[in-house]
Design a protein that fits this description.
243 residues; alpha/beta; 5-stranded mixed beta barrel; 3-stranded antiparallel β-sheet; OB fold (Dihydrolipoamide Acetyltransferase, E2P); 10 strands; 6 helices
Length: 243
């Protein structure tokens, strides 16, 4: 039917107890909540909103562009067939081609790996988050919801550490951006929960056997959940480089 409404869909996950904030934010952007599933730690929220119709002018332009593109492809194919026989004699054999190293594959892979890590230098949202004055700010929840499972890297220090429960070798770490240790006054209250020293994956020169409050590192971690009740931003350690 011509008047049938077409929807686009989006699924979000929120820490239990903060789903109301996520729903309000999505509804402000025009999304409608269609399903809500409560999990043990997270709530899965399914949204939809009507797709915006394409303007008539753009539709006409797109059709015209497709016609022109088809003509160009046909001409290019004809020229390619015509020149195929001429180039056959100069074409390298399969063995020669496979022996030649690719000049772009390695740099491309390196660039792809580099863009997967979020830093204050390549992500303005993360840069702003590290400078927030309130560890309970909604920016924490928004960032966690958007980038959960992604990897971040930042220069920071250990604000506080304590044994996890009754363990002697497992700890809860409170981390902050910058070099101030216990005096850190900006940014999220990042937390490593229930980890031992090996879990930190310490790297760099003169790797210590133990760490303490105030030590400065380059933290690389996976984004976890934001606990809005405790204002704690959970991270999972990937590597910890001594600075």
């Amino acid at each position: 039917m011509a008047d049938e409404i077409k929807y686009e869909y989006k699924t979000m996950q929120a820490v239990r107890g903060t789903d109301g904030l996520v729903i309000a934010k999505m509804q402000k952007d025009g999304w409608e909540l269609v399903e809500q599933a409560q999990g043990l730690l997270r709530t899965t929220l399914n949204f939809r909103r009507p797709k915006r119709p394409l303007p008539r002018l753009l539709i006409g332009t797109a059709v015209g562009g497709l016609v022109i593109l088809a003509i160009v492809i046909g001409v290019a194919a004809a020229l390619e067939d015509e020149g195929e026989d001429k180039d056959a004699a100069n074409k390298p054999t399969a063995a020669t081609t496979s022996a030649e190293p690719s000049a772009t594959s390695a740099p491309t892979a390196a660039r792809s790996a580099a863009t997967e890590v979020i830093t204050p230098q390549n992500n303005p949202e993360f840069a702003a988050l590290l400078k927030t004055q309130d560890s309970c700010d909604n920016a924490n929840l928004n960032f966690a919801a958007k980038y959960v499972g992604k990897t971040v890297a930042f220069d920071g220090s250990i604000v506080h550490m304590a044994p996890h429960g009754a363990y002697d070798t497992r700890y809860d770490f409170l981390l902050g951006p910058g070099d101030e240790g216990p005096s850190t006054g900006i940014g999220p209250a990042f937390k490593y929960e229930d980890v031992n020293i090996l879990d930190l994956q310490l790297t760099g020169r003169n790797t210590p056997a133990a760490v303490r409050t105030g030590d400065k590192f380059r933290f690389v971690a996976e984004v976890g959940e934001f606990n809005a009740k405790q204002c704690l931003f959970i991270l999972n350690p990937v590597s910890t480089e001594i600075r």
